Amino acid sequence: MTNETDPSTRTALVTGASSGIGEAIARELAASGFTVAVHGRNEERTHAVSASIAEQGGRAVPLVADLSGSADDVRALASAAVEQLGGRVDVLVNNAGVYPGGPTESLTDDTVDALLTTNIRAPHVLVAALAPAMVANGGGHVVNIGSWMARVGVPFMALYPATKAAVEQLTRAWAAEYGHRGIRVVTVAPGATATPGNADSAEVLAAMTEGTPAGRPVQPIDIARAVRWVVSDEAVFVTGGTIDVDGGIASTRMR
User: Fold this and answer.
1) Which domains does the chain have, with CATH numbers?
2) Residue 36 DSSP SS3
3) Which run of H or of E encompasses 43?
């Protein structure tokens, strides 16, 4: 059986972990004792994050792959994670995603394909590849990183939120499908989050969040701490739903 009480015996694959939210999740899990597979598309950044975790006393391995490739490429990533993590993946964090926006008519076919393959197909392929072994090993966790936009209509950003709404539905379905076999599945939905990828939009993020209860953008560490709690014994009855870590942006209006 998976030993949830002792994180030092557990492993995690975090996709999109070479920067931003994924990096924070990888670091938080490693600091809690997990052995973490750090996935990213950029080889230099992915190896740098893995090496930095190791320098700080954690255990991490780098895995470089493009999740917008073929389904077989994604399955190869799953196999590599199992091999590099000593034969098992106890926690899968589906964090990698792309988020191009703009008017609906401006999205190219290639952009649409990238959104669908990276944000929906890749998590589906990874769960299909890894969940059976989680069951055989006594259980595990799948954490899908969603978005506050999944339940709010915003102009010029139609397809990205739709992919995150699909992720929330996958969470509900997977929790029903695998729950009785020992796998808990949860969506953690960030609000407007300050990451290196949107550093040039700092003023926009500040304006978006000024009127929220939190009054500021979410930080990646806020998401990472929620994920760490979700995969702990303290959250043993948390499955099938969405945890908003958004400062109240999706559920409140203060002005």
Assistant:
1) 7-243 (3.40.50.720)
2) strand
3) helix 43-55
Residue 134 corresponds to which amino acid? M
Q: Is 160 a catalytic residue?
A: yes
Q: Which of 2, 74, 144, 160 is labelled catalytic?
A: 160
pLDDT for 197? 81
Taking the mean position of all CA atoms in its chain, how far away is CA 149?
A: 15
188: its two tokens = 């953690």
Listed residue (188, 129, 194) closest to 164, CA to CA: 188
- Distance, C-alpha 177 to centroid of its chain: 20
Record the pTM. 0.94
Contact at 8 Å (CB) between 174 and 185? Answer: yes
pLDDT at residue 3, rounded to an integer: 47
Helix (H, G, I), strand (E, B) or coil at 119: helix
Mean pLDDT for 116-144 is 98
> Strand locations in the chain, DSSP E?
11-14, 35-40, 59-64, 91-94, 140-145, 183-190, 242-245
The mean pLDDT value for 209-213 works out to 92
What SS3 class is residue 40?
strand
Render pLDDT for 21-77 as a digit per residue (tens, 0 to 9): 999 999 999 999 999 999 999 999 999 999 999 999 999 999 999 999 999 999 999
Q: What digits encode the pLDDT tens for the residues 163-182?
A: 999 999 999 999 999 999 99
Percent of the chain with pLDDT over 90: 87
